[in-house]
Amino acid sequence: MAAEIGHFALLLALIISIIQVIVPLAGTEKKIVGLTTFARPAARGQFLFIIIAFSSLMYSYVVSDFSVANVAYNSHTLKPLIYKITGVWGNHEGSMLLWVAILSLFGLGVSELGKGLPPFLRARVLAIQGLIGGLFLAFIIFTSNPFERLDPAPTEGQGLNPILQDPGLAFHPPLLYLGYVGFSIVFSFAVAALIEGRVDAAWGRWIRPWTLSAWCALTAGIALGSWWAYYELGWGGWWFWDPVENASFIPWLVGTALLHSAIVVEKRNALKTWTILLAILAFSMSLLGTFLVRSGVLTSVHTFASDPERGVFILCLLVFLIGGSLILYAIRSPKLKGGGLFAPISRESALVLNNLLLTTSAAVVLLGTLYPLILDAFGGGKVSVGAPFFNATFIPLMIPAMLAAVIGAKLTWKRSDLGSVLIRLKFAFLSTIFVIIASAWITGSLDDILAACGFGISAWLIIGSITELAEKISLFRVPFSITLRRATGLPRSVWGMAIAHSALGIMVAGITASSAWKVEKIQMMSPGDTISIAGYNVNFEGTRQIRGPNYKAERGTFKVYQLGRHIATLSPEKREYPAERGQTTEASIKTMFTGDLYIVLGERGSASSKFSTNWSTRIYFNPLVVWIWGGAILMALGGLISLTDRRYRIGAPTAARPFKDAPKGG
Q1: Distance between CA 478 and CA 457 in Å, rounded?
Q2: Which residues form the domain of 603?
Q3: Which residues, 6 or more positions from 485, have their beta carbon under 8 angstroms from its beta carbon?
Q4: Looking at the domain assignment, is residue 220 inside a domain?
Q5: Domain count along the chain
Q6: What is the rounded CA–CA span in Å between residue 79 and residue 459?
Q7: Which tens digits make up the pLDDT trace of 181-190?
């Protein structure tokens, strides 16, 4: 019965989404305010029925209703409850249901929190959001129905992919989708503004909280996904430039550019058409990522579907939404009035440089991701574009972006003096030089000069951000009571920016150390063997068999000593899942401030005897690797602190009149 309720709720949500599109747009076109009011209850109704459908599917998983095909193919009675729940979005159909649920959540957010928006603009935004929701609901109902029945129903399910049976999967997809899909509301604001012909400081302020919300969620989602791949896949790395990893990273890059560009629109009423384009591109790249994951054109542990029918359907959605919005942009953007002028040396120019570097970086990653697919489609054969290409092209673009981030924060609006800014940054500059020299001296090799420069950039970001804050609160220049009063009086967005930029510096330090100074040892070990690595002695004491709730495993025991003192016992596993007929490698990690000691249990030495005590082992020391995820989470936290700024919770500035005769309040 739950499946029928869920399916019927999806059909009702589709009908409501059609109403949400047609009636409000007709009201704005005919200037009938009464019709525009349909947008808010329609957004509420769409959210309500999608949540009913999502809850129905989750209930089917919890009670193991194997008459529902989606449950039978992705669950099993032996699975722990948490994995039954996460299994809801661990497959194509369920993940798309989560997608539209989050899409409707953002529509509901504008409906309930956007009371200060002009009625006609809000109606258009909700109508565009309803259009996106309706298209994806149609995709689910006609090609990816999660409520299809099996007759007769099997007595047992096939289980979930073993590598997805992990607590990280309880949070990674929802966070990632909050970011991915969150850009849809900014897209709706952009299209609504093009239809209405109004982009001004008020519009810039309206989109910033939504952009920041999506950016924070996407930042946390990517970081959590990287962490999951690090500890679950047993390969000792944290980023592989996998095409599906890139599919989430590209919208993040464009979204970061959009976040900075929207500041210029709000503060200086400039870069309007560029910001509109970024808003369209950010969601377009999210849609492209959806196509790559679900069309079957890529093979990855992250992909869900390989049905050509689904791929064609999503491709049509892609062409309609992206193509339609870009055509509208080409027609309407020339009619938008330009904003304030600014000098080449100004904060506006620094943000323009930031935007150019970020979007170029996104284009490079996009090219490296799509080039093998395009070449193969035109009969050019199969090629692989991996880390060497991305490192050689992406990193040189990011270095000037990070250097400019600190300088740009000190420049004034409209016109600034670069010389005085550099003088004020002398402490940060001297600290950067010191860190570079110290790093090169510690390693004792000029071959590590790139690593030393990486640490220098890290110091530049961290100390430069602290210097900016210290200046604003007059640290050490006035009595402490005045400093404290100024610190508490600073806008939260200033604190958020400083934290986010410093967090980026922490990430750079982690990336640099774990890439340049990683130590890896691969060997066969028998009980009693000891391996020395990075100042640690690792003693292998053997393995034993254990049983989990839905798996059996061989668990190794490794004692770790430093200077003769026992500091940890690590227990990597080789797991076998009988129901899914799959295996996983569970790494065991000792996380320290200075780095991770990472041990993976490989294959038994003698394939002919299950009683062999000789095992293949991989032991890594990844210096400062935890700084990568700590920095990413701190960066997202900085965004959340900015989001609490009171300026995002009070009325927006008075909006300018559109170029065409819109009614008062519209």
Answers
A1: 30
A2: 519-626
A3: none
A4: yes
A5: 3
A6: 47
A7: 999 999 999 9
